[in-house]
Structure formats: structure tokens, C-alpha cells
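=== Structure Prediction Worksheet ===
Name of assembly: unnamed complex
Input type: mixed (protein and possibly other molecules)
Chain count: two
Listed entries:
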Amino acid sequence: MLVLTRKLGEKINIGDSIQIQVIDVRGKQVRLGIIAPPNLVIHRQEIFDRIKQENMDAAKELLAGDIRDLGLLINKNNKNDEKPEK
Amino acid sequence: MKFETLRYGEIQVQPEDIYTFPEGLLGFPNCVHYTFVNEEGISPFKILQSLDSSSLAFAVIDPLVVKPKYHFQLTKEDISIIHAADVDTISVYCIVNLARNIKDATINLQGPLVINKLNRLGHQFVLFDDEYSVNEKLLSAEMLQRSVPEILKNAKSTAESSEKNKVG
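=== Predicted Assembly ===
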């Protein structure tokens, strides 16, 4: 991994089309500004990891959970919503 | 075409019912082919069954059924991933985590599945901001208040339903 030190406001260029700027540093938080082509997807790593884990958990729980009762409950509830209460 | 599945045994799937997620779903990069199974009695859910791994399947739902205000933005570049030119041709599903107790079921609103209905290409998007989470409660507090005691009365589970007394 390439490790660099940058001061507030300084930038890094990656190739011709990606620019990263240090916008703000407060304690342990660093705000970064990123300019990149729109077809490049930028993720926060922890969200990516969370979704991965959630997918795996959801696949596992499908085998154990009771999908019918849950479906019934939602359908029943949505039907109730259609009827205005008097 | 015939596929072996854990949930349904051998199933017959027409080519026009096969959906391709070229990058797989997150955590399952090698599972790219899926089909939707309208399993009886599970509406409004559908089962997204992997055709590459017999044991892999997800419960999915149109998120607007349970979260009518759910929304997120897709740019032209985003939908070009599934070769869509227009949002009119896409449909959105979210994966549901059923949990052991239906009260704890969650829906992943931060990683929606977006499908181009015209070519059946799909992609799991990762929403950048934290407006939605990967495990929002599927049932709102009011829904639980209104419906759970009744449903739990019918449910066969015993230990887990003990809380119904509290709700009622």
C-alpha cells in the first residue's frame, strides 16, 4: 500500500481522472472530497461489509424463519389500511 | 432447463425466467443466476432462488409494500450497469432477514436489488448514505401492536410467543 502524508486542503491525483482532497481534519475524523468519473462506484467499506454479512445472514435465516406467518401479517395489515376506520 | 434446489427439489425454469446478476450478490460473487419463485402462501414475499448454488435462496419483497416512503436516487450511470436507459423498466426488491421470531424480521433497505425487466439483468446497489440501514425492522411498531397478538395466537411456536401477553 502506498502511504502518503497530506496537509489540510492538499490533493492527490490518481491517474488523470480521480482527485482526492483533504477537506477537513477534526480529531480522529478526516473529511475527504473526491472527484471521479461518474461510472466509478465509490463505497464506504463498512457499508459494503455490512451488506455482505446481512446477505449471508438472510440466506441462512430463510431456512429457519417462518415466512408464511410474516406474509399473512403484512397482508392483513395492508388490508386494514385500505378500510378507513370509523 | 432443470435445476436442483434445496427448497423445492428439482425445478424447471424457462430461459425467460432466469435473471442474471453479473457481479453476484454481495458475499456471493459466484452466484449470478437466479429465478423468482412465487411460492404458494408466502405473498407478498417471493423467493429469489440461486440457480448456481442449490442451497442459496433469499426472501425478497417489493419494499414499498412495507415501507411506502422508501426512495433512493439512481443516476443514469447507475442504471447503465444493468443496461437500462430509463427507470420505468426497472423493478426494485429488498432482501428480508426472517429471524427466529417474526417480530425481529428485518429488511435490507441499504442494499436494494435493482432489476432491468427488459433484459433481466440485476445488480445489488449499495446506498452511500445512512438514511437507510441493512437491517431496518420489517414490521413497524403500529403493525406489531395491531396484528402480532392475533397472528401469534395461531402460530405453533410456544416459547417465542410468550411475549404476546405483553402486546395485548
